[in-house]
Structure formats: structure tokens, C-alpha cells
From TrEMBL, chain A:
It is found in: Cell membrane. InterPro entries: AAA+_ATPase, ABC_carbohydrate_import_ATPase, ABC_transporter-like_ATP-bd, ABC_transporter-like_CS, P-loop_NTPase. It is a peripheral membrane protein. GO terms for molecular function: ATP binding; ATP hydrolysis activity. Pfam families: ABC_tran (PF00005). Residues 5-241, 253-498 form the ABC transporter domain. One of its GO terms (cellular component) is plasma membrane. SMART domains: AAA. It comes from the Bacteria. It comes from Halomonas eurihalina. Keywords: ATP-binding, Cell membrane, Membrane, Nucleotide-binding, Repeat, Sugar transport, Translocase, Transport. This is Sugar ABC transporter ATP-binding protein.
Automatic annotation (TrEMBL), chain B:
Keywords: Cell inner membrane, Cell membrane, Membrane, Transmembrane, Transmembrane helix, Transport. This is ABC transporter permease. It is found in: Cell inner membrane. It is a multi-pass membrane protein. It comes from the Bacteria. It holds the Pfam family BPD_transp_2. The chain crosses the membrane at residues 27-45, 57-76, 178-204, 225-247, 279-298, 304-321. The keyword Cell inner membrane applies. It comes from Halomonas eurihalina. InterPro entries: ABC_transp_permease. GO terms for molecular function: transmembrane transporter activity.
Amino acid sequence: MTPLLSLRHISKSFPGVKALQDVSLDVHAGEVHALLGENGAGKSTLMKILCGIYRQDEGDIVIDGQTRDFHGYQDALDAGVGIIFQEFSLIPDLDALDNIFLGREKRNRFGLRDRSTMIREAQRLFERLKVSIPLDCPIAELSIADQQFIEIAKALSLDARLLVLDEPTATLTPSEADHLFAIMQALRDQGVGMVFISHHMEEIFTICDHVTVMRDGKKVDDCHVASTTPDDLIEKMVGRRVENIFPERRCDADYDDVVLDIQSLRLDPDGPEHSLKLHRGEILGFAGLVGSGRTELVRGLIGATRPAHARISIEGKPVRLRHPAAALEQGIGLLPENRKTQGLVLPFSCRDNISLNNLAQFQGSLPLLRRGQEARTATDLMTAVRVKAPSPETPVGELSGGNQQKVVIARWLGHQCKVLIFDEPTRGIDVGAKAEIYALMKELTAQGVAIIMISSELPEVLGLCDRAAVFYHGRIAAELEGSALDSQSIMHHATGGLRS
Amino acid sequence: MSQLASTPGANRQPLKTRLARWRRTPIFYPLIGFIVIFFAMAVINDNFLTSSNLVNLARQASIIAIIAVGMSLAILTGGIDLSVGPVMALSGTVMAGLMVAGVPPALAIVLGLLVGAAFGAFNGLFVAFAGMPPIIVTLATMGIARGLGLIYTGGYPISGLPPEFAFFGRGTLAGIEMPILIMIGVYAIGYVLLSHTATGRYLYAIGGNEEATRLSGIRVSRYKLLVYTLSGTTAAIAGLILTSRLMSGQPNAGVGFELDAIAAVVLGGAAITGGRGMILGTLVGALLLGVLNNGLNLLGVSPYLQNVIKGLIILLAIYISRKRTP
């Protein structure tokens, strides 16, 4: 049978890097094809070539046995390729209907928008996907999952027969992800071919038929999912066997030494009152579903948003944290959830990103920077967190997600921080880099740093945290430790005490 | 090897690498453009390359060039300052008015500069602490500054300034004309600020990603306040030169100067969205505008046509630099 899509011997170079070398990939109609690889392995480049955003140096894109020549995204759309990027292309202020038909509005005989025809067509699409989403609600008010389903509906309305899903589950809750898989199954039965990019092994084994593993711009292997194992895939992906991605269990916490004492923190005047203690050397997990109020709490804590009321002490001394700068002075740092929009200054080099909040220490009596000293310190910090980059001057935007996260970590190592808050530190990061980031966190706790880790991944909370606070609807529903800290009780509290 | 890249050893890299790196700096294409147009003017017109004409050119360009330093800071942080022209006029008329009223010139100058700084700070308060878009804030204060200048002068130029005040616009120091000398001084300070201080780095960071900068513990609002205060100050310095050169305080001076200053910044390779640019690029941009003005005047091109040509060259220059820079 002719494959729906056949990428043949694709190579692509960027100045100084061979991004892809002789990569081939076949996707058949009605197949979910997993594309697996660490960040920087070349998955995104390959998908951008498939979508006409980049042009390959060598090789062919063959669709239905016909060689295609893509000069832009539109050519790919015309050939029936749809892509769901991690960053959605929806317009937040428009409703679902207008987004689906953007640029292709149905018109009535007066040349005006024909909403009723569009509504009928949209409902047919939603039936195909087995979802029900209000069509007249601004996109911004919908959940991330619904937005993603609308992206899929939009691609289908363009007669896409091949869908590329780039880490679609990264921002979904487990139940939303299940819904997505149901949609994917329905589409598979309808003969749509899909390329599915994910870092989650269990997802690949749940939904995918075939898997292609990439490493360093080359295809390492492709095989049926049924004939492989997660360990096998991870080994191919990272080129070595990762026995256990979590560091050895070791409790560095000193429960007699409270570093951060949130006696009372209320974000809204009539919102719930939070209280929490954090001990030296401890990793406290903030578990819960996406949107359960964990990020909001830490932002209020460090003064990124102004809380309605706060009584906080650090090492027994009452402090007022009205601005992230005040938090930094008290030794509290936040590593935000979205590296690109909140963590990094993307046009800056690694060095400039690392020294961003460390510059004061490179000033002499005159307020001039000692750049040699700055460069040395930044290089040392980069080495300490094992950033893989050609040079400290490399623009941080060119690094993989894992290395970008390490750059953000390095920034805070330049301070003698007492408390570091990691918000989803391993989102979108490959397995090898995850293990390194976990190891770094344990190195920090060994030095007495207390860590709050917000994480939506249960294995991460279980594998790393000494204690966990479980959030539900903006409240801390439970604090779990010791033997009470298991996946069932976390899920129990995170879903409001309902048995799932 | 990788660690050598940031050390002085970088100079020993192969020429090709160094050239490639150089091409990526924001100043590369502006400089090429400047050289091309400069030599084109020199070839077309015999009088262009005389020393007296070049001094003339630099002096004429100095006012926009100085305003453009403040504008660079605003644009670098992702903002803009439309009020520079009226602030220049206001500061100049205040200086003139005070001197005519008998205040010693030195004190009058300081007070005039303070008026510019204070007005800039007024802009900055709204931008930094009220979180209002700079284009709206400075559009509003543009009108306020112009109105204040007209109220202060009653709409008439203020003349009868003490002769020693002419020094700043017409005098020379060590053989160099004062406007040019002041311009060099302002650029030197701007360069040190942006390239060698923590403050400068923060300004780039704010333009590159304001939220990340704030979350990493930088008091972004304070630096924004500083930026607009400095922009008001450079406008006031330009006002000093203009008033001294004309020997009168002109309440209607500087109409459209904000646009020339923005053009200089953008021609100098800065991104209008912030985060990218160099102060020396702005100097090149301002001088490029100066070369165009001067050269087209020498050629006897009608002022109406000059506007069209300048506009087209700006479009072309920015088109090229946007295509070529990442």
C-alpha cells in the first residue's frame, strides 16, 4: 500500500549545524506515528519541512505517491497536511466559529458572512471529533484542551488527511489527554494519518501504532510500537540506558529548621487563606491539576502579583515581598513555568541571560561592569549546571528546552538563595535533561536550599518530593508526606476528593 | 575552544568567522548604507567633500542626533517618546525666558535642562507605574509640552539673550564646534551606559522580555522611569543647542523632530519592538539623515521632493536590514 506520506532521505543544514541527515519516514492512512527524540534531535525541523516552513537541502516529500514541492505553509495545507503547533494559531478574541473559518468565511448571496452555514459545518466537524464546544464563546475563555480541539477541527475543515500534533498533551490534564486520545482514535478510524510528538512513553504506548526514534538529526530506528518497550525506546533516544531518571532517594530536609513560613497569604480579599511551612533542604511538591492555583500562589508569594494580605517570615524574620526584586533580596527565586515568555530574554546570549540578575556583583566602585569577570562567572555557572551550548555567546533561543531550563537555573545559582521555586521545571524537556535537572535540584537541597516544585506529573512529585501540597480549586486540599504520599491520594485530593 | 569565544582570544578567530559575527551586529547594514550614500553624494557633488561642508553637516545633524539618544533608550525598552520635539522647545524657551529675566545663564541652562528631565519623568511615571502604553502617554504629553511652551512665551519667540550664551551653538572648543562636541559627549555617555553598565543591560533585557526581567528580580518600573527622564533630558540638551544657535527661544521649534529621531534610531539598526540596537548605530542613522539632507540641498533638490526621497530611502534601508538580520 502506498503510504499517505513518505519523507525520503531528508537532509537540512543551518549555518554551523547539520539539523537533519538522511531522515526517512512513512506514515500510512489510519496510522498514528510517534516521532520520538530528545529536544534538539531534529523533530521540529523535520515537521517544519513537512509543513513548508523550512525547505530541505536534499530529499523528497512524497504524498500519495506524488513528489511535492512546498514553498510555504499554504502549499502544505493544500496538499492536505495540517499541523497543531504547541503555540496555537487561534485568535483569542474571536469565537470558535470565526477561528475555524478564518479567511475562508462562507458567504451568502449578499457577500456577507453566512453564520448558519458555518455553524452547521462546524457542528459536523465537532461530531466527527465527538466534542461539544460552544461556538460563540471567545477562544480566550475556553480551556487549553478545547482550544486544541478547535485547532484540530480547523485543520480538518481544510480537508487535512495528515495531522501533525506537536506535543499536544504537554498542557493538558490527564482526563483532557484521554479525551484527545479518543479523538485521535476516531480520526484514525476515519483514515487520517497522524504524526504524534510526545515525551511521554505511556502516551506512545496508549495511542501510537508505529514509532520513529531520532537522535542528533538522524533516524535511529523505526518499529511497531507493539514490538518494543519503553526502556528500549529511551535507550535509543538518549543513546544510553537511563536506569532511573530520579536521583537516589535521600532526604536532605531538616524539619527543625523552617526557612519559609507563610503564616497567612490571601491572594484575593475574599479568596482562601493559605498557610505553609518550608524547611531547609526540603523539596515540597505542589501537586494538582493545571489551573488549580499553584502558580498564582507562588506569584503572590514573591510579589509578582500583589496579594490582598500576606504575613510571611523567612528564617523567623517577618518580611514583606512587594516585588520579585524584594524576594530576590530575601533569597527567594522563581523559575517560571514558561521559559520562553517568562524565564528567558530570548535575544540574549546564554551569558547575558545568566548574569541578568547577577550584574551587581560585577560592578566596581564605578558602576561599570567588569565584563571579563562576568564572562568567567557565567561560564563557571554554565559548567556547573552542564549547559550544552557551543559558547556562552550563543543566543539562548538556539538551545534545546532542557538547556534553556538549565540556563534559567544557572541564573539563580549566582545568588545564595534560600528558597527556589521551580514551576513545571521539566515541561517539554527530554528524558536525559530531566534526569540532569532532578540531579541539580538534589545538589541544591544538599547545600541546604529549600525547594518548592510545582509539577503536574505525578511520577515527578513521587520521585523527588519529600512532601507534597495538593491543590484543588485554588486551595491547598491536603499536605501529604511519608507513606501517605502516593499517586492515589494525590489524585484523590487533586480532583476534589472524588474517586476517579 | 568554546570558552575562548568570550575572551580576548576571540580576536584570533579566522577572519570569516569574525566577519560573520560582525554581520550579525545591528550596526553592520546601517554602516554599509551610510558609506554607500556618503560616497554617492561625494561623487555626484563636488562641494560635498569639503571640510567646511562636512562640519556643517555634522552640526546640522547634531540636534536630531542628540534627541535620538534618548529615543534609542525608549525604543530599546520597547517604548517610544513622541514628546521630544515639544519638550525641546519648552526647555529652550524656559532657558531663554529665564536669561531675559536676568537669571545668570549657567543657572538658566541648568533649570532648562531640569524642565526637560522633569517632563520626561512625568512621561515615565505614566508609562512605568500606571502601565500605560508609551505611544499614548507621549502623544498626550506632546500636546501638553507644546501648549506649555506657547503659554510661557505667549506664542512669540524670546530674543535678547546674553551674547555669551551663543557659545553652545556657535562657539568652538579646541577647534571643534560646540554642537558637535556636545553630540560626541552625549553619545559617549550613551555608549558607556548601554554597553558597560548594569542599567544598560537591563534596558536591553526589558525590551527583550519585560516579564522575564521583572520575574528575575529587576525593578523594571524604575528603569523605565529613568529611560523617559533621560529622553526628556536629551531633548532639553538639543533645546540648549538650538536656542543658543538661534539666540532666541522658539516655542514652535522642533515640529516633526520626533519622527526624524525615530527614523535615525531605526536606520541605525534598532528593532522598533525593542531589545535590539546600538547607540553607535543611532549615530550612524542620524548622520545618514544628515548626509541626505545636506547632499540633497547641495544638489538643489526641491524640499518637497527631498521628503519623498528621504522617505523612500528609509523604507529601502529598513527593508534591507530586516531581510538580512535574524
